[in-house]
């Protein structure tokens, strides 16, 4: 089962998978400064208090994840994650472009963190990764909600203004809902 075995805490694990996990943890932690600038940009550009609070909560989770990754790395290697070369923050073309970038960044992070989880030798570390992965999924849902607020909801409000309650007495009378079979309308 294990090629190139390594013993960690009395348990056998795959050294190649462990080294890959450590490399990916370093990548996840490095770029911290750029991430902070990116979140500050989104928070400043957010058009509503609700969106600012959502992005702030995501930023706070990401700071927690960074700390957890550092703990995992130090717990395995006995060393701190080496400092990174500062990468330059590139401002997105717009707030929505930044939200889209963040959304797809969260989804890519889930994939990367699943790879990290595969090589971790202890249940405690894998449990920490599970928490981080579920947070990343939650973040992608929140970014989708922000996209909805900025794109779809405005279009729907315009349609509802155009088709006021005077003309329609129930949701099913709105043209955008007429494609839904009556059985599905509450």
- State the end-to-end CA separation: 53 Å
Q: What is the CATH topology assignment?
A: Ferritin
- Oligomeric nature of the chains: single chain
**Rg result:** 22 Å
In short:
This protein has 186 residues and is mostly helical. Helices cover 66% and strands 4% of the residues. It has helices spanning 15-29, 32-45, 49-77, 95-119, 123-150, 152-162; strands spanning 5-8, 11-14.
Topology:
Elements: E1 5-8, E2 11-14, H1 15-29, H2 32-45, H3 49-77, H4 95-119, H5 123-150, H6 152-162
Antiparallel strand pairs: 1-2
Helix pairs in contact: 1-3, 1-4, 2-3, 3-5, 4-5
Description:
It is built from six helices and two strands, in the order ββαααααα. The protein has a two-stranded antiparallel ribbon. The longest helix has 29 residues, at 49-77. Helices cover 66% and strands 4% of the residues. The chain has helices at residues 15-29, 32-45, 49-77, 95-119, 123-150, 152-162, and strands spanning 5-8, 11-14. The termini are far apart. α4 (95-119) runs antiparallel to α5 (123-150). The chain has a single domain, classed as Ferritin, core subunit, four-helix bundle (Ferritin). With 186 residues, it is mainly α.
């Amino acid at each position: 089962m294990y090629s190139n075995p390594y013993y960690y805490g009395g348990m056998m694990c795959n050294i190649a998978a462990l080294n890959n996990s450590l490399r990916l943890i370093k990548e996840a932690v490095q770029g911290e400064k750029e991430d902070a600038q990116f979140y500050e940009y989104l928070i400043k550009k957010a058009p509503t208090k609700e969106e600012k609070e959502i992005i702030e909560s995501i930023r706070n989770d990401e700071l927690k994840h960074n700390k957890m990754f550092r703990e995992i790395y130090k717990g395995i290697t006995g060393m701190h994650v080496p400092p990174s070369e500062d990468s330059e923050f590139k401002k997105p073309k717009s707030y929505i472009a930044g939200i889209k970038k963040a959304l797809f960044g969260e989804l890519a992070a889930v994939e990367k963190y699943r790879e990290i989880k595969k090589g971790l030798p202890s249940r405690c570390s894998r449990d920490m990764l599970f928490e981080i992965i579920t947070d990343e999924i939650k973040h992608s849902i929140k970014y989708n909600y922000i996209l909805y607020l900025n794109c779809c909801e405005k279009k729907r409000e315009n349609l509802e203004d155009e088709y006021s309650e005077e003309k329609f007495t129930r949701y099913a009378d709105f043209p955008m809902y007429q494609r839904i079979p009556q059985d599905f309308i509450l």
